[in-house]
Amino acid sequence: MALAVKRSISEINTLPEPATIVPQITTHRLYKRIRRNACKSSGTLTSILSYVNMLEDASSNDALQILLKITDSMHFDESEFPDAIRKLVEHFQREPESAVRVKILSLFADLATETGIDGQQLIDEVIKLLKVEQSAKVISQGLIVLEKIGKSFTPSVAYINQMVFFAKVKLFSPSHNVQRHAILLLGVFVLVSDAEKESLELIGKYTDSPDARVRAQAFRSMLTLGERGVQLPPSLYPRACASLTDDYECVRREALNMVFELGVRHPEEMIKVQDSEQEVRLIDDAFGKVCSAICDLSMNIRTLAAELLGGMTMVSDEFLHQTLDKKLMSNMRKKRSLHERSAAHFASGEWSSGKKWADDAPKEVISADSVSLMASGACGALVQGLEDEFLEVRTASVNSMCKLALKNPLFAVTSLDFLVDMFNDEIEEVRLRAIYSLTAISRHIILREDQLETMLSSLEDYSVEVREGLHLMLGACKVSTKACLTLVVQKVLDVLLKYPEDRLSTFGCMQRVGQKHPEICMSITPQLLLDHPFFDSAERDVEDPAYVCVLIMLFNAAQHLPAMLSLFPETTIKHYAYLRDTMPNFVPRLAVGGDTKELNLIGSTGSRQFLETLLSNIQRAYSAPQARQALLKAAQDDLDRLAEIDPAFSGTANFTSVFFGAQLQMEQLQLAATGHSIKAPIKECLLQLIKKCLMLQNLFSNLTIDDQLLVKQMCLRASALNLVLIVKDRSQSALGPCQLLLHIASDASSFLQENTPLIADTFTSAILTKLATVGDPKPGRVYREILPIVQTAAPVVIPQINTNIKMCKARIIEPTENSYSAENVIKVTAGLIAAVPFVAELENLQQSQRQDLRLKVKYPDQNVHIIVPRKRDLKKVMTEQGESESQWRLRTKVLLSHGVWTEASTVEITICLSVKPNNELELCKPVKVHFAPKPVKRGL
């Protein structure tokens, strides 16, 4: 298993040959054989009966230790399970110690979740044992075990009803733990039709239980039923509201979730206000109740309430705006007209005698607070959350304010000042959330000068993420006046002098500012370019970052307002040509001299036609090996160039290029397997083929099932060739390659069984058939069986065009080749450490690949160091629309250290994926920095 691939290697698609029957390869047998070999080599027992038999004469303490050993092993022969379960049940019935009985039940759950044991048999046994059990602790554990067993497979309706009936019986237990776990079991397994009839009401009665844990579990189970599709009626709302003032935090938390859920599910339901005849919408009243929870004593409840507010977007405007004002609006109170008051007085039958002052006043004085249509907790609730002492509450409040503002433009304008105030928070995370929230609602707001001053003061923040976030926000927002834009430009340029490493982020900011303010940019163009109306100004340095920022902003504004071109002096026009060539991603194409037409290759037209022609030419030359190989070599160069000039089609082009490279390597190795000599060393060719197979399987996403089968078949061929050539060479052990072939074949067989419409090619079918018939898969036996198939294998088929393929790749932003050149050498005392700032952007990195990211440092003496970056150094790139789905930014420091060198030499730094031990796939070309460890200076 040492050479077994971390992820199952993939392979190639099938030739359009006659449909062959794919054998149902014994994947279970192959995996089990490898697992048994591993267990045998480590000397561990594999028979569960050998453990269970030891329980017969063991004491309670010894039995507990034996059961723990069984739990630790979990690698058993499944044929022994029925006898083992029977003996465990017998020991349970005669065991006096409840802790041992609890452990036996827990062992049943572990067997159900980690092995292929029959879950229905376990359910029968557990229920049978619990019916005569008296210990509340054991019954509670049994209910937990029933839940785990039921989740491990899909039980039939009969078994579900059996578990539900047993749980309902145990609801009447005096133990709160038994009640709690019985309610939990009901929430998970009760049928939806039964829940709507009686089970929901039955669970709801336990919200009045004397025990807080049972009350909390009752609400939690009702919410679980709601997630499963049960209709939660509005009649549950008063019960949930009453529990909001419970003494226990766990109950208040679940009640708050229930209030939120009912408000979102029944927003237009009308309910009466407490102590009043007035009615309000359920979502409005629920919103007020959630707002009141922001003043809860528990930080967790306040955080939850702040999070839930963001999901209540259907609330009325008057309730929403009240969260930003701590004074209750007068029009939110119930008022009666004079006619209504007179009618009420007449209906009372009381008349004034005139002898006493104000004796005709209403007998029942109604307090103004008692007829408020909105709870006082809703007043300034979000402001209260933003001022909370805990950063979790403040962060949740900022997020909720952003979500509500996105749905309500008027609320976005009102909340702007509060978000700007959060730029001064002492916690960086809160400042970042406020910046990103303001960026998200930027389309609804226009910034004033007083607001800009607060924002721009944060531009000098020590955190590079805060500065980049502010650059993103300034580029997304619009300003109101010329003075505001001038203030933005001046502050951004001043900060750029202090932090020159923010150059690229500043360029992007000025680009978006110019695109959003073309008219204002036109009014300040002479001022920014220092262009005098009568005298010629000195030509400015085009390498000056501040001047480049100004030009980028003006050129992007001129793209939307061509009249600006007449204001540019001649030197600026010359600088445009230079910047257009050096920064095409920041400087747009303008109608300045010459032809303004731009050639665009679109993936659906030009690039696709080119690739279709290329593949058809290879297909026509398929029967001629020499012509096919020549075309494949030429096609690799063409596809690499296509990936550079058409980013939308780069994933498809790179996938096809790597596939062709693997195909060429495979054909050369196939000649070596038949006894012919080849030019390149066989070992080197094998390493290249394995690397290309790993690239096909790990660097590309959005593959269709046909593409996945293609890759799996390619890897199956590669592993078969690897085994054949290693056995022929006889210089190393073939046990690892043999197990690798069995693993890949098992994976391919499972894939074909799961996707029955797919048809494997003749090579794959033949290999899987041979491996299925091998009784003892030793390397020599497997080699003799597959050798004729490998030697006579037909060429692999070419892939179909899939324009959705994306390739994982990286771009190193810092350091650059010029930042640490021969004139700027990193000098450090030998043996000490030099920290080099490293910034890279990654595209199409899958979430599951984050932990495989590595930095590779290669020194001139060929020593290679692999560095694992910290998880917090890798974050998603923020855009105006929020977090990017496919782009990541890695910002860390690379530590360099070495012995004494006579002169400075280059150290290569690159970013890669560790897909397998000692196999790293580079995601970009390495950057070279000059490094010079100096000898230690001896003092006098």
TrEMBL record:
Organism: Anopheles quadriannulatus (Mosquito)
Places the protein is found: Nucleus
SUPFAM superfamilies to which the protein is assigned, alphabetical: ARM repeat (SSF48371)
PANTHER family with a match to the protein in the record: INTEGRATOR COMPLEX SUBUNIT 4
Protein name listed in UniProt: Integrator complex subunit 4
Organism domain of life: Eukaryota
GO cellular component entries: integrator complex
GO biological process, one term: snRNA processing
